[in-house]
Write a structure and sequence with these properties.
- The protein is mainly α.
- The protein has one domain.
- It has 16 helices and no strands.
- Helix 1 packs across helix 16.
- The protein is globular, with a radius of gyration of 21 Å.
Length: 378
Amino acid sequence: MAAPDPGALKEDGTFVAVDVLRGLSALAVALFHVRIHLWVGYRAIQENPSAYSAFDRLAAQAALPVTQMGYAVMLFFVLSGFCIHWAYARPNAPALELGTYTRRRLGRIVPAYVVTVLLCFAVEAVVTRLGGPPPSSPQVSWSSLFLLQTYLCAGDQLLSNASLWSIPLELELYAVYPLALWLARRRGMGASLLLAGGVSASAALALTQLPPDRAWLAVATFPKYWIIWMSGAWLAERTRHGTLPPFRGLHGTMAFALLALALLCERWHVPSPYRHFLWGALSFLVLWYFLTQPAWFTRLPRGLLGPFVQLGAISYSLYLLHFPLFYLLSPWYVSRFGGKPANFLVSAAFVGLAVAVAWLFHRLVEAPSHRWARGGKP
């Protein structure tokens, strides 16, 4: 059995792999979304290839994997379950103090979210003045500010930020974690996983029977994602106790099979709950691999590894801000150049700008809220 390699840990006890994967997940989601507002799109290039250069067509082919990168949110959920349970998974860990737990979870999520929504209001006002669509409805706007859009607006999100759907869902997962921890400590992690798996499977079966006007529930409710989130908690439990098995060839074969099946299910238009389970299982195996293969990170030069670790540190800010930034820049680009970028490499450059903006937002908003959540501790 493989205990965690100290080389895979940073000075604060967190895993380098977790930071890097968190950053790469946020980057993947940003690349997925930049296609909406700052790229002409793969289909436009395929349908009229003579209107575009050979370089544009080549870049479009290279961008094909980006169409699946929205599923990186499943990796976010696995990483979240790992990180939340890590503090409580060690042997003889203290009891969960509900007040402290709530303060820390809300402090890490809500202040940056609220500031983001207020920025979205301003972005939508500017875009409207530039000739874009009118702002989101008052109901969606104010419901989003109070994290109630999932319940009051049939899953509708702000026009300027489609990424916000997962934040209320994440808070729901935080809310049910104390129950999962209580059950795990009394009946074992297997019992907690069984509960989460049963709830998720039942939710998936129910969601596939929804009429079209309720289809939004297939995305915006937490039960379906509970087993994905808890799979990360299982990895934390086994890693803490030094009982996480090595990642073997069979696991790698399973990962490639899951990837192939997920891509086929996308093509076959299999209901989204089942596709999410496949991507969640693949994300679970990816984290398992990197937890037991620290050499991928510990042997990299600091100058190469450092930026990826920093990207992980600002990943939440990047996740929150990239969509409104693209929404704002799109009318500006179109008015200046007469249309959206045809070359996806130009589009990807805007993701780099989003990273810079996220770094600033992290410094000014997210990091102070984290300090408050920790009771002022650095």
